[in-house]
Amino acid sequence: RGASVRLESHSFDATGANFNSEELTLSSDSAHTSVSSSRASSQRDDGDDEPRRSIEREIGTQTSLNANAVPVGGLASGSVSPFGSPRADGNGKGLPSHFEDLGLSGAEERERALIEERVRDSRSGSQTSSSGGDSEEFYVNNPTPQIIPPPVETGAVGEKHVIVMVGLPARGKTHMARRLARYLAFFHGARTKVFNVGEYRRKNLSNKQCNSDFFDHNVEKNKQLRASFAKMAMDDMIQFLFEDRAQQQIIKVESMENMSLNAMGAGMGGASNGDNGGNGAMGGPHGQSLRSRSDFYQQKGVDSGKVAFFDATNTTKARRKWICSQLEGLPLKIIFIESICTDEATIEKNIWDAKVTLPDYEHLKKKRDKAYADFKQRIANYEKVYQKVDEDNLSWVKLINNGQKVVINRIHGFLPMKMVQFLTNIHAFPHSFYLSRHGQSEYNKFLKIGGDSGLTELGEQYALDLAKFAEEQICTCEETGKPRTARLWTSSLVRTVQTARHIPHPMIKDPSTGRKEWIQMDHRIYRNLDELYAGVCDGMTYEEIEQMYPDDFKRRNEDKFNYRYPRGESYLDILSRLDPLVMEMESYREPLLIVGHQAVLRLIYGYFTGKRREDCPRLSIPLNTVIKLTPRTYDCEEERIGLSNIISQDDGQREPPSH
């Protein structure tokens, strides 16, 4: 942002005799740019020299001074493409002389073929259109355009992060790690993975061997076993971070170079890896020294955006020092996240809800009291050696009592700060979300997408049924039958506001204060929840889009997630406006009803249920249905409740069903 790009466009008339040189200054600071043009060469036949006017245009696929220009495949029909001096091809049609000499191959060759086809199409029509000498079509000289869309997996380019969880058992470490990994992968395109040391222990020991005695730090044998499981997780984590094929090829070459240099050094009497005169062997790949190990894993800019979570108690400074030594010299950032809980009620609830059902206690499935007592003893063993994180030289985040207090140290950068922001919002208390599309709209009825139409008669009936469901199910506690606080969100579009308008909003007691000041289902309207904008296709049917924009229709079917409607949005664009709302959703403890649209609800549903974001555009979010989601540490409970069964759930749009 803030940069300007100067482009030069050359155009010819049908005979190639008249030559115009256009200078365009495109500024990224605004949605519009001014195009200043000057006539650079020959005059017209009548001798008049007409200076070109400066205008403002909206940045789009084509650069046009003719408001009536219609783009065809990115080039206007009947115009002459200004790629350079025309040269006849085998069919006698002009192609730019420099275009065939690019020496492209593979994907670039296919892009070249596409551009050649567009050039031939543009030259198959009439001469360049003009209107009174003041309005002409012209196009940016761009024979090798940037390939779009950008890579699916984005993230912090060239950076890797290791997140080390710290804390006593039953403090929500695994819950935090898994939720944070999910958030970074879904909204920021980072490749994430959680390495839980307990899982390695369970693979190598039986459940009966994993009782509280195994975690006694005075038993040296068990201490060494736990250290070996941590080493297994560490090795797999490093492999994950540097597993790319291109990366491995570079590593292989550097490894051979390092071995050659080491051999030369040994032959010249230099200190070897095992000598006391330098770095000692660290047990890295091929037994290389720390310096060689660092070279072995050099990134060289071929990878981006990986975040690995080392999930264990890591309660002692010695263990944290060992972790740093294993990762020393590698191109990555280490962040420690410590979870502290002083609320005994929260700890008790976490043990009963999550810990007594662990695979460790499968043999005590019918004796939960014994499982509870054993886990309490496990906590006591760790409390004897627990040392809180206070190392000033490390980067760390300290979360106290589910984010009531947060302390950070040496945290810098975009992705780490997003992690901190997310962690301050999440908690381990169970809470449910209710997702519902609007009732059937007028545009649904007439097969149109987008728009801002109102509800049909059937849509109005669903609005009444939804209000009844919200009052009886969402706003009423299932256990006590008494009213409970609940929330309501809708988009700013008419059809969602009308769908939610019958939901009552009585004043009830706020459980946090005990005073009657909570407005039940207080209606909050967010433009962030608006439906995916279809741009020039807004209000069209899919049949019309296929007829008028066949290329776009095909590209959309091939990649619905990244496809962006002309002057509209893509699913990837929606993620950026959903990011802050999802953080707020994570912070809520009350049930929340969202009345929204298919594309937006697909992404929200996909995030909480663990779907790949590329698969979200194909998820089923039908009309007249409420989807109840209850996220948990390892999964998400889902329940679908059909309302208004007499109304067809078909939204009136054949496949693809909607945005």
Strand residue percentage:
15-25%
How many helical elements? Answer: 17
Structural class: alpha/beta
Cα gyration radius (Å): 31 Å
Mean pLDDT: 77
Number of strands: 24
The helix content is 25-40%
**Which oligomeric form is depicted?**
single chain
Poorly predicted ranges: 1-104, 125-135, 149-157, 268-304, 652-659
Report on the biggest sheet.
6 strands, mixed
Q: Give the N-to-C terminal Cα separation.
A: 30 Å
Spatial order of the strands forming the largest sheet:
12-13-11-14-15-16
Shape: globular
Write the layout of secondary structure elements.
Blueprint lengths: L3 E9 L6 E9 L4 E4 L19 E4 L12 E2 L2 E2 L9 E3 L5 E3 L10 H17 L6 E2 L3 E2 L23 E7 L6 H16 L2 E6 H8 L15 H22 L3 H23 L22 H7 L9 E6 L5 H11 L5 E8 L3 H12 L12 H16 L12 E5 L4 E5 L4 H10 L9 E5 L4 H4 L11 H18 L12 E4 L3 H6 L7 E3 L6 E4 L3 E3 L16 H7 L1 H9 L12 H17 L4 E5 L1 H12 L15 E7 L4 E7 L17
Helix pairs in contact: 2-10, 3-4, 14-15, 16-17
